[in-house]
């Protein structure tokens, strides 16, 4: 996955909660006979993170997505059939990867988009004002989303359910995901009270060296997973940088007890890559100084599970906890496995019997 480009354009403010669909519950017996709320009708208004709110007269038959996480969210709620075009980086799930390509947020293929003539285009903050203006100038409805956390992702999925008119089914799917997220976060918190919170760094790229900064959604995931996020670099504007380029000396000062690498850094396609990565780090004088390297607490997580703010981030969060708080009670069960499968994710439980202390969580 093109991690740097994708992350730089996908770290966004979430879907405003005021437009979330509520969970549907049965009417209490003491309220039988009272009138129930009327189902939401059309037209419907949806908040956009970029530009004005949009108004849809009916569920869109044709949706074009300009980011991989948008395509994944739509697929996870059963709305893949509404999607008629995706960006060049969308490769999951397979049925989305087979959709027509429309360029990306930096260089959309306007001719292809015009030929598709979608009812709705969904994009993110990384889309320039020039691109947005051109798309709207063609008369298209353009919705911007901005997810920076699992809660934001769940809110966006619920909003997409309202957009395609399947909010009740989507509420059920998202409700299960929310409960699983709370369950494993509580387990991580309980483990952290006993074992403490290890100093943790997520490495996006080794050369050049980019890491998750305080302004990233991964920083919050690390805290929720029972870790202590220790990299904070300011932008020229004085704000926390989400993905700063840092020196190895910065890492030495941060002294991480846990290092987590995006899988693109490992080089091999099997479990041996973990040992190769650890050996490479121990041969480097700077990396070898880090407590995480000395103790073998170096982990690899598949890029797309942890760097794309979409439904698979729940699985990435699951694996992050297993790295940071290995003694956490993750309450693995067939029910938990079913939640991941229903949301279109691969298997939930990573290998736990690695022969070497480094773990490749694939």
Please describe what this structure looks like.
There is one protein chain. The chain is built from 15 helices and twelve strands. Strand 1 and strand 2 form a beta hairpin. The longest helix is centred in the middle third of the chain and has 29 residues. The two termini are 15 Å apart. Strands 7, 8, 9, 10, 11 and 12 form a six-stranded mixed β-sheet that branches. It has a four-stranded parallel β-sheet with strand order 4-3-5-6, sandwiched between helices. With 362 residues, it is of the alpha/beta class. The protein folds into two domains: 142 residues, Rossmann fold, CATH 3.40.50; 167 residues, Rossmann fold (3-Layer(aba) Sandwich). Helix 6 runs antiparallel to helix 7, helix 7 packs parallel to helix 14 and helix 7 crosses helix 15. The relative contact order is 0.13.
Instruction: Calculate the terminal CA-CA distance, rounded to whole Å.
Output: 15 Å
Number of domains: 2
Quaternary state, please?
A: single chain
The largest sheet, given as strand count, sense and whether it forms a barrel, is:
6 strands, mixed
CATH class of the largest domain: Alpha Beta
Count of helical stretches: 15
Low-confidence stretches: 1-6, 8-13, 16-36, 347-362
**Over all CA atoms, what is the radius of gyration?**
21 Å
- Principal-axis shape equals globular
Mean of the pLDDT scores?
A: 85
The total count of strands amounts to 12
Helix content: 25-40%
Any guess at the CATH architecture of the largest domain? 3-Layer(aba) Sandwich
Beta strand %: 5-15%
Structural class: alpha/beta
CATH topology label of the largest domain: Rossmann fold
């Amino acid at each position: 996955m093109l991690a740097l480009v994708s992350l730089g354009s996908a770290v966004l403010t979430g879907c405003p909660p005021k437009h979330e669909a509520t969970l549907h519950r049965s009417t209490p017996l003491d309220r039988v006979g009272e009138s129930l709320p009327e189902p939401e009708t059309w037209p419907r208004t949806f908040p956009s993170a970029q530009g004005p709110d949009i108004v849809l007269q009916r569920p869109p038959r044709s949706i074009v997505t300009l980011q991989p996480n948008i395509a994944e969210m739509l697929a996870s709620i059963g709305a893949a059939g509404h999607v008629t075009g995706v960006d060049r980086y969308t490769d999951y799930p397979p049925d989305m990867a087979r959709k027509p390509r429309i360029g990306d947020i930096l260089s959309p293929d306007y001719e292809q988009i015009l030929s598709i003539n979608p009812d709705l285009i969904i994009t993110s903050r990384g889309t320039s004002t020039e691109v947005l203006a051109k798309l709207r100038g063609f008369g298209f409805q353009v919705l911007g989303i901005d997810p920076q956390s699992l809660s934001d992702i769940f809110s966006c999925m619920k909003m997409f359910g309202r957009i395609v008119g399947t909010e009740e089914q989507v509420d059920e799917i998202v409700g299960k995901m929310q409960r699983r997220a709370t369950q494993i976060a509580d387990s991580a918190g309980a483990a952290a009270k006993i074992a403490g919170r290890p100093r943790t760094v997520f490495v996006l790229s080794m050369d050049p060296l980019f890491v998750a900064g305080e302004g990233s959604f991964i920083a919050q995931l690390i805290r929720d997973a029972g870790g202590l996020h220790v990299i904070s670099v300011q932008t020229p504007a004085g704000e926390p940088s989400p993905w700063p380029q840092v020196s190895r000396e910065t890492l030495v000062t941060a002294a991480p007890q846990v290092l987590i690498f995006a899988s693109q850094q490992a080089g091999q396609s099997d479990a041996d890559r973990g040992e190769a990565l650890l050996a490479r780090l121990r041969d480097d004088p700077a990396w070898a100084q880090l407590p995480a390297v000395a103790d073998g607490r170096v982990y690899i997580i598949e890029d797309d599970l942890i760097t794309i703010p979409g439904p698979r981030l729940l699985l990435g969060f699951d694996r992050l906890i297993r790295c940071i708080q290995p003694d956490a009670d993750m309450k693995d069960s067939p029910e938990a496995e079913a939640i991941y499968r229903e949301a279109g994710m691969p298997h939930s439980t990573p290998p736990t019997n690695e022969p070497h202390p480094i773990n490749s969580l694939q």
